[in-house]
Design goal:
Blueprint lengths: L5 E14 L2 E14 L3 E5 L6 H8 L7 E10 L2 E2 L5 H11 E4 L3 H4 L6 H13 L3 H14 L5 H4 L9 H13 L5 E5 L7 H17 L3 E6 L11 E6 L2 E7 H6 L4 H8 L49 E4 L2 E3 L16 H30 L2
Parallel strand pairs: 3-8, 3-9, 6-7, 7-8
Antiparallel strand pairs: 1-2, 1-4, 4-5, 9-10, 10-12, 11-12
The structure holds adenosine-5'-triphosphate (ATP) and magnesium ion (MG).
Length: about 375
């Protein structure tokens, strides 16, 4: 059922890949929705299915992909059943995507102003001079310095951070309803990462685009996301508001992700990670796929898949630990440190926002 405020609904999506080694069960019954103007973060380790999920939203699945169930409804219409022509219109104007490596999404032979203007000319039929003027405005909006003089430069003349800003400008020029950002900062160095995240937060305030933000780093989610979906082995295992996921996490996998978030005083080479490896999706285990790595696993975890248990109206987790008859366990102590760090990050972001607001009011005559 399509509720009014959801612009996107993914229902019981199942995707396999045919390979020489057998059938990879990459997406194993994923459901979520996206509301107008919100940012949804999808977090999870490598191979959990984040990219495949979002590629299905764009109708961009690999040739060996087989959708074995479910649907992806954009304003009620199934993307997985759209014609090539409908998909092209969707991708150009309604749903845009930015990737990890800006260089792969830019055309090295085309001047950047033209690249930013192109989607306007192709999808909205805007005349070149007007499209170029809008491209210049967008360059300024995404913080490309000296935009007037740089509009005719080529991608290689820009730094990595500036290139990612160009990619964001191209993605936003048509004011898409959904922006998918797949690890948009991981290829950039830490300072630039922070700047791009700041930019995305600012843009989110200015443009009411809904954002699906993919990351394996829970720390990045602070201040970016409204809600978080935690993925493991092709499934969503926990879903909640950002505060619910950080301050009241219920799934042991989420505990693991939180524990592996760096604290302020750990340096990155001693970053703990969740012991063990994700399951082989050619032959996913029976029961809860996280059980072999879960120190709190119950007997039933190896026998039967856990359903979603409701924690609040907005918070669900698929773990047998939430069954009324399950033994009571408390999350590992070390996540308290991470929660403190997270609270600090939230506070810093709040201060930053206030600071911006003060600056804005000062600028006014
Ligand atoms: N074309 C393909 N053929 C076979 N298997 C595939 C294909 N594309 C993805 N997969 C598999 O699907 C699973 C999910 O992959 P996906 O790229 O969505 O992971 P991810 O969560 O985005 O990981 P990462 O954080 O590394 O980007 C993985 O096991 C991957 O190997
Ligand atoms: Mg990915």
């Amino acid at each position: 059922m399509q509720s009014k405020e959801n612009i996107l609904e993914v229902n019981h999506l199942k995707i396999n890949f045919s390979t020489y080694a057998g059938t990879v069960k990459a997406i194993r019954d994923v459901s979520f929705n996206l509301k107008k103007g919100e940012t949804l973060a999808i977090v999870g380790e490598s191979g959990s299915g984040k990219t495949v999920t979002t590629r299905s939203i764009m109708g961009l699945l690999a040739n060996n992909a087989v959708v074995t169930g479910g649907n992806v409804l954009f304003h009620g219409k199934d993307v997985l059943k759209m014609s090539q022509k409908e998909l092209e219109a969707l991708r150009g104007a309604k749903i845009a995507q930015i990737f990890q490596d800006p260089m792969t999404s830019l055309d090295p032979t085309m001047r950047i102003g033209r690249q930013i203007a192109e989607p306007l000319m192709v999808h909205q039929g805007v005349k070149k001079s007007k499209a170029m003027a809008q491209a210049l405005e967008m360059m300024k909006l995404v913080g490309i310095t000296d935009a007037e003089n740089r509009i005719n430069d080529y991608p290689h003349q820009f730094s990595g951070g500036m290139r990612q800003r160009i990619v964001i400008a191209i993605a936003l020029i048509n004011y898409p309803e959904i922006l998918i950002a797949d690890e948009p900062t991981t290829a950039l160095d830490v300072t630039i990462q922070a700047q791009i995240l700041d930019l995305m937060r600012e843009l989110q305030d200015k443009i009411s685009t809904s954002i699906i933000f993919i990351t394996h780093d829970l720390g990045v989610v602070a201040g970016m996301a409204d809600r978080v979906a935690v993925m493991y082995a092709g499934k969503i295992v926990e879903f909640g508001t950002v505060d619910e996921i950080f301050y009241n996490p219920k799934h042991p996998y989420t505990w693991g992700l939180l524990s592996s978030m760096p604290t302020l005083d750990t340096n990155s080479d001693e970053l703990p990670s969740i012991p063990g490896t994700p399951p082989d999706l050619l032959d996913p285990p029976k029961g809860d796929a996280f059980a072999p790595r879960n120190p709190y696993a119950l007997k039933i975890d190896t026998e039967k898949e856990p359903p979603f248990f409701k924690v609040s109206d907005t918070h669900y987790a698929a773990t047998w630990l939430l069954h009324p008859d399950a033994p009571k366990v408390t999350p590992p102590e070390q996540i308290i440190e991470r929660q403190k760090k997270f609270a600090k990050m939230q506070q810093q972001l709040e201060n930053k926002k206030l600071h911006h607001k003060v600056e804005e009011t000062e600028e006014q005559p």
